[in-house]
Structures are given as structure tokens and as C-alpha cells.
């Protein structure tokens, strides 16, 4: 089916509240950024992109515009108003909310990718508190929502292989007049996309050239002595047998002096990654370049991708090969990676059919733009009684952001980190109308709100960790994101 015809629209209108209309067009003269600017402008929306192994642009990018409903936990908001979210199962409530929108499916004959619309947003690290008993030691200093998801009326699918764009518009169910109105709205959106638009250097925020981010000292939730003291306490817990590894993090904050979209433009250029995202949400923006999938569900298949073990890229193919071999022979890196593979198997085992969980790839080196990682893939078949969001609840947060054993490590984190993590260490991604899910771990991400940019980074503490070196590791990780901020201010004045 090339497009939704009137007869099919009328038939689906008897069963659903919203019926998707779609149309395709040539998109060989635009980039995802220019299409985002044309379609979303300064409004709320999202952009999802991917660069595979740091060098190859993923086939699809997605732009969401014209939000029609929001789910914010612990408060649910929609176009009909707001209702309380007092239950203890936020992800189950999200699924009920999304199902309640009653969006008709697009037929397979349309040959669209697995995502053509649904809920897009973030799941905070602290959602785990609804599923596991954790102490309440850390302070919730920012009072951010624990989850924000948006459904947009318009989803633009950019097919980089065919140089084609497909616009999907959720029309309200109804009669022939509703069908014609939906078609007219889609035509207006297409007209916006056809306009020649010069990408502005900076939108909405004036850049201050004499006060570049490199000259401003960021503040942090830890200073060096207190971080080192927390590392020593982690080592005591590890020596006592409480944990094998504990991921300790700190959050940096500094003034934001450029438009948030410019930060994303800089980040995608400096650090192309498998999961690139820009979310413009109520009261905040998030720009991320995460290398690490958390969980992906397509149909009944569920998979997670443990990543642990890192080396910088070599100057040529020969040095790349030498560094990769050195990485695979590092006993400490191998032990940490094996621990995460075991965690992945255990997590999936809780929601998958008995005997279906398997390691499909084991300890392979993947090369990205600046680094190489050891990567494995663990997959299984989702139980008939389980949903994609139940699988997400079982794997969050990733072992790379907590440590192991996971629950005990999180208890120690809650004791030692002075403030709640919020989005850091949680997940960002989409939940499609038909139940498919694709999420990444929220790392290498800049959260922007109230004129500030916030960056959170962690270090995996083990028995022989040197406190000052672990502190420096977090600083080094943050520097890459501070560089993206500085470049955004320099390039997009």
C-alpha cells in the first residue's frame, strides 16, 4: 500500500482514535539537522540518528514534531489534561497510556522501518526504585521527572540509503472530512520541508564570545577529597565481599551560552556514535552520543549488548590491530566484560522463555571514531506474558553504570553519591505503537536546563583502584563533552 486511501481510513476509524497517513518524497538535498530545523523549529520534538561503528551512517534517522501527548512520571499529562500517576508500576502505566491512544497500525505493505511513531524520551536511573528496594540516602536536588515520554503527531523517517523521506501524520479518526483535513495538514508539513532554509548559527540564545566555556570552571557534586574518600569506602565494601565493582559518578555543571541544538550539532561531529539523540522536552533539552545499547525488542526477540574494555584508536590499521589484540589479552578487561555478559544473561533470563537466552556474539572488538570496545550480544525470546517494557524494567540500569552484584552496588551508590542521578545511567529511546523498543544507556550526554549544561560521568571502582586515578578518569570523560560545549560556542556564534 503506497498510501492510506479513504476506504481504509473509514474502516480503521471505526476501531481506532488515530489513523496514520503517510507520504514519501526525495530528500537528497537536506541533512537530518536541516530537516529538524524546518519541521520542528524552536518547538518541542526529537531527532534520533545513528553512526554504526563510528564511521558508517545508520540507514534511518527520525524526526518527531508537533507533540500531541506527554507522559511524565509521577504525573501523566496528555492532550485531555493531567491525571495522577500514584501507582507503583510506572512502565506498566506508560504502556497503558500508549495503548490508550489507540493508534491504528500501518500495514507491512507500506515497507516502513520498525519505528514510524510512538513514545520517545528518557527513563531515569531512579526508576529502579519502583522495582527494587533501595535506601533513600541521596538528595533529589533537581526534582526532575523520573520519566518523560512524548508522542508526536508527525514523524519524519529519513532513509539515507534511498535518499528518501517519509512523513507519517496521525490524523484523528472520523469521516471523509477528517481524512481530507489530515491530508491537508500533511501537505502543509511537506511544504515546510520543501522550503529552502539556511541553518542559523544560533537560535534563541545569544552567544557570549568573551566568556567561552573553556574559561569557566565547572562545579561538581564531588570535590577531589570527598570523591577519593568515597572510592576508599567502595574498596572497603569490595574487600568485605559486598561487591566486585561499584560505578561511582559525579555531576558537573556550568553555564550554557549557546542554543542547545548547537551542542548536539557539535557532539555528533566530535563523537559520532550508534545512538545519537536530541530531545527538546518541556523545561529541558538532552543531547547525547551514546555508544551503548541497553535493550532492543523487535517482535518477541530481545537483545542487549554488554560493552566493557576500551582502548584508543591507533594511527593506522596496523596499530589498530595491535591495540585490539592487547585489549583482548587484558585479564582485567576480560574479567569485567565477562561479569557484564553474565549480568545480561541473568537479566534477560527473568523475562525470556526458559532455555532461549544465548550469547550470540562474544568478546568481539568494535571500532568507533576515537576508541575501540569489547562488545558481546546476548539475546533471547520474550515470554508470551511479558512486554518490551517489562524487559526494560529487568535490565535497568545497565551493569556498566551500577557495578555487580547490581542491587548491592546500587545500594552502595545511593549511600555514597550525594545526589540522585536522574537521567544519567538510565535510558533514552523509543517505544513504538506496535510494541518494538530500542534504547541506549544515557551516557556521554549533556542535559541542558535553566541556562546550565550538566554532564555526569562515572568510574568503575574495583579492589585495586587508585582513588586519584579514578577521579581523573571521570574528569577525562567529562572533558570530551566540555569540548563539545566549547566547540558549539565557537562554531555557532
UniProtKB/TrEMBL annotation:
<dbReference type="Pfam" id="PF00425">
    <property type="entry name" value="Chorismate_bind"/>
</dbReference>
<protein>
    <recommendedName>
        <fullName>Anthranilate synthase component 1</fullName>
        <ecNumber>4.1.3.27</ecNumber>
    </recommendedName>
</protein>
<dbReference type="InterPro" id="IPR005801">
    <property type="entry name" value="ADC_synthase"/>
</dbReference>
<feature type="domain" description="Chorismate-utilising enzyme C-terminal">
    <location>
        <begin position="226"/>
        <end position="477"/>
    </location>
</feature>
<keyword id="KW-0479">Metal-binding</keyword>
<comment type="function">
    <text>Part of a heterotetrameric complex that catalyzes the two-step biosynthesis of anthranilate, an intermediate in the biosynthesis of L-tryptophan. In the first step, the glutamine-binding beta subunit (TrpG) of anthranilate synthase (AS) provides the glutamine amidotransferase activity which generates ammonia as a substrate that, along with chorismate, is used in the second step, catalyzed by the large alpha subunit of AS (TrpE) to produce anthranilate. In the absence of TrpG, TrpE can synthesize anthranilate directly from chorismate and high concentrations of ammonia.</text>
</comment>
<comment type="pathway">
    <text>Amino-acid biosynthesis; L-tryptophan biosynthesis; L-tryptophan from chorismate: step 1/5.</text>
</comment>
<feature type="domain" description="Anthranilate synthase component I N-terminal">
    <location>
        <begin position="28"/>
        <end position="166"/>
    </location>
</feature>
<dbReference type="GO" id="GO:0046872">
    <property type="term" value="F:metal ion binding"/>
</dbReference>
<dbReference type="Pfam" id="PF04715">
    <property type="entry name" value="Anth_synt_I_N"/>
</dbReference>
<keyword id="KW-0028">Amino-acid biosynthesis</keyword>
<dbReference type="GO" id="GO:0004049">
    <property type="term" value="F:anthranilate synthase activity"/>
</dbReference>
<dbReference type="InterPro" id="IPR015890">
    <property type="entry name" value="Chorismate_C"/>
</dbReference>
<keyword id="KW-0456">Lyase</keyword>
<keyword id="KW-0460">Magnesium</keyword>
<dbReference type="InterPro" id="IPR019999">
    <property type="entry name" value="Anth_synth_I-like"/>
</dbReference>
<dbReference type="InterPro" id="IPR006805">
    <property type="entry name" value="Anth_synth_I_N"/>
</dbReference>
<comment type="subunit">
    <text>Heterotetramer consisting of two non-identical subunits: a beta subunit (TrpG) and a large alpha subunit (TrpE).</text>
</comment>
<dbReference type="GO" id="GO:0000162">
    <property type="term" value="P:L-tryptophan biosynthetic process"/>
</dbReference>
<dbReference type="InterPro" id="IPR005256">
    <property type="entry name" value="Anth_synth_I_PabB"/>
</dbReference>
<keyword id="KW-0822">Tryptophan biosynthesis</keyword>
<keyword id="KW-0057">Aromatic amino acid biosynthesis</keyword>
<comment type="similarity">
    <text>Belongs to the anthranilate synthase component I family.</text>
</comment>
Amino acid at each position: 500500500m503506497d498510501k492510506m486511501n479513504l476506504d481504509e481510513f473509514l474502516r480503521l476509524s471505526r476501531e481506532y482514535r488515530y489513523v496514520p497517513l503517510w507520504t514519501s518524497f526525495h530528500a537528497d538535498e537536506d541533512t537530518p539537522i536541516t530537516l529538524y530545523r524546518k519541521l520542528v523549529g524552536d518547538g518541542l520534538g526529537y531527532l534520533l540518528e545513528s553512526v554504526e561503528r563510528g564511521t558508517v551512517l545508520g540507514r534511518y534517522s527520525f524526526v518527531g514534531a508537533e507533540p500531541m501527548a506527554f507522559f511524565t512520571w509521577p504525573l501523566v499529562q496528555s492532550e485531555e489534561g493531567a491525571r495522577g500517576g500514584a501507582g507503583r508500576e510506572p512502565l506498566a502505566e506508560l504502556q497503558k497510556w500508549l495503548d490508550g491512544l489507540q493508534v491504528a497500525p500501518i500495514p507491512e505493505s507500506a515497507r516502513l522501518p520498525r519505528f514510524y511513531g510512538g513514545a520517545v524520551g528518557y527513563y531515569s536511573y531512579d526508576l529502579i526504585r519502583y522495582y527494587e528496594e533501595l535506601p533513600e540516602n541521596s538528595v533529589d536536588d533537581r526534582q526532575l521527572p523520573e520519566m518523560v515520554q512524548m508522542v508526536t503527531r508527525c514523524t519524519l523517517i529519513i532513509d539515507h540509503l534511498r535518499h528518501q523521506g517519509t512523513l507519517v501524520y496521525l490524523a484523528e479518526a472520523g469521516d471523509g472530512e477528517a481524512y481530507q483535513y489530515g491530508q491537508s495538514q500533511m501537505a502543509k508539513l511537506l511544504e515546510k520541508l520543501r522550503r529552502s532554509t539556511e541553518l542559523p548559527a544560533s537560535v534563541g540564545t545569544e552567544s557570549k564570545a568573551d566568556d567561552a566555556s573553556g574559561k569557566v570552571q565547572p562545579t561538581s557534586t564531588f570535590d577531589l577529597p570527598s570523591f577519593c574518600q568515597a572510592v576508599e569506602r567502595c574498596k572497603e565494601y569490595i574487600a568485605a565481599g559486598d561487591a566486585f565493582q561499584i560505578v561511582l559518578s559525579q555531576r558537573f555543571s556550568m553555564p550554557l551560552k549557546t542554543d542547545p541544538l548547537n551542542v548536539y550539532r557539535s557532539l555528533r561531529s566530535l563523537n559520532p556514535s550508534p545512538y545519537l539523540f536530541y530531545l527538546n522536552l518541556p523545561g529541558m533539552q538532552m543531547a547525547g552520543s551514546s555508544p551503548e545499547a541497553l535493550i532492543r525488542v523487535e517482535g518477541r526477540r530481545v537483545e542487549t549488548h554488554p560493552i566493557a574494555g576500551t582502548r584508543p584508536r591507533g594511527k593506522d590499521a596496523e596499530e589498530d590491530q595491535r591495540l585490539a589484540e592487547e585489549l583482548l589479552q587484558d585479564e582485567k578487561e576480560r574479567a569485567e566484560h565477562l561479569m557484564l555478559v553474565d549480568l545480561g544473561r541473568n537479566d534477560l533470563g527473568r523475562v525470556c522463555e526458559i532455555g532461549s537466552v544465548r550469547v550470540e556474539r562474544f568478546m568481539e572488538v568494535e571500532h568507533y571514531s576515537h576508541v575501540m570496545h569489547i562488545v558481546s550480544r546476548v539475546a533471547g525470546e520474550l515470554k508470551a506474558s511479558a512486554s518490551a517494557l517489562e524487559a526494560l524494567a529487568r535490565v535497568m540500569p545497565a551493569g556498566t553504570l551500577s557495578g555487580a552484584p547490581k542491587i548491592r552496588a546500587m545500594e552502595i551508590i545511593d549511600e555514597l553519591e550525594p545526589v540522585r542521578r536522574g537521567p544519567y545511567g538510565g535510558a533514552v529511546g523509543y517505544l513504538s505503537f506496535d510494541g518494538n523498543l530500542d534504547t541506549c544507556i544515557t551516557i556521554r550526554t549533556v542535559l541542558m536546563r535553566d541556562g546550565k549544561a550538566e554532564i555526569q560521568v562515572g568510574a568503575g571502582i574495583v579492589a585495586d583502584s587508585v582513588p586519584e586515578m579514578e577521579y581523573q578518569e571521570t574528569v577525562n570523560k567529562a572533558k570530551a563533552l566540555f569540548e563539545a560545549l566549547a566547540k558549539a560556542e565557537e562554531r555557532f556564534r
